[in-house]
Amino acid sequence: MTKRPRFSGSALLLALLTTMCLSGCHACQAQQPATSTQEGYTYKRPSSGGTGKVYMGREIAAIMTATGGNWLDRDTRQEEENSTRTIENMNLQPNTVVADIGAGTGFYTFQIAPRVPKGKVYAVEVQDRFIKTLESRRDKEGATHVTVVKSDSLQVNLPAQAIDIALMVDVYHELAYPKEILKSIHTALKPDGKLLLLEYKAEDPDVRIKELHKMTKEQIKKELEANGFRLQRQEDFLPIQHFMLFEKVNTAND
């Protein structure tokens, strides 16, 4: 029988406080002054719906959990976002390789898949409940060229130089490590690869989305250009989102 270690009263109190602090990292960060890290992030007291983690002047929003899946598949989404027009403007060819990063329940993945019958769609997700939903839907629809990929907060886990176009729809603002994920996407893109970002318009007060879940064009451009991307095309045809297409800037290491 394994013996449990014994603690003195003071040691037990210290262990309890340490556990509480580790399990409530945002609360711990809130007690710290804003400080820089080696990765270029700073920390502050979290705003409502925020993480308290700041990148290039923007507080990163708390991630929407898989319990919000019904909202992703709401009946009004096509009307509100006009996803059909977004996909039409991705210039997809039958053999295009697409990565839907933060695929959720597959709202975009399974609209894109029929348009690239000789290509491939990677549905990339970090949350296990969404992973199961994506796999189930892929099998049900017989979309054999859709590959579901489990990512993490630092890597998209895609093969190098394999992707023609990566897509993130209302996802980027929630990335816990945007700098690292952009680097991972950059590696996964082909030399002429593209990254399409859709984000809710922070400039428009009529877009009734929480502030931390919206971004300005200026902020999007600033962050992506700092991480190996150049704005190629920007459109204003979507009702509530920015459509910003970036091209990969190749370096000597590519």
From TrEMBL:
Keywords: Methyltransferase, Signal, Transferase
Keyword Secreted: no
GO biological process, one term: methylation
Span of domain Methyltransferase: 93-219
One function term, GO molecular function aspect: methyltransferase activity
CDD domains: AdoMet_MTases (cd02440)
Residues in the signal sequence: 1-30
Entry superkingdom: Bacteria
The name this protein goes by in its record: Methyltransferase family protein
Species classification: Bacteria, Pseudomonadati, Bacteroidota, Cytophagia, Cytophagales
